[in-house]
Design a protein that fits this description.
This protein is mainly alpha-helical. The protein is 68% helix and 0% strand. It has one domain (13-62). The longest helix has 17 residues, at 46-62.
Length: 65
């Protein structure tokens, strides 16, 4: 299953993406964007950040128990 999302990107970025596709880095524009989003999500996990925040709050409330 896939979700269709419409986005606007700056012309210069679109040209850079298309150049990468033309050089063979991805099979098409969509594939390159999906890969870029996947890599971004992998490098910015939300769960660990949330658990670190919770640990900081616990430490702030209760100290180093």
């Amino acid at each position: 299953m896939a979700t269709l999302i419409e986005v606007k990107i700056p012309d210069q970025l679109a040209r850079q993406v298309q150049a990468l596709v033309n050089q063979g880095w991805a099979s098409d524009f969509n594939a390159l964007l999906v890969e870029a989003l996947r890599r971004y999500c992998e490098s910015h996990p939300s769960q660990p950040a949330e658990s670190f925040i919770q640990e900081d709050v616990r430490w702030g409330l209760h100290g180093d128990d």
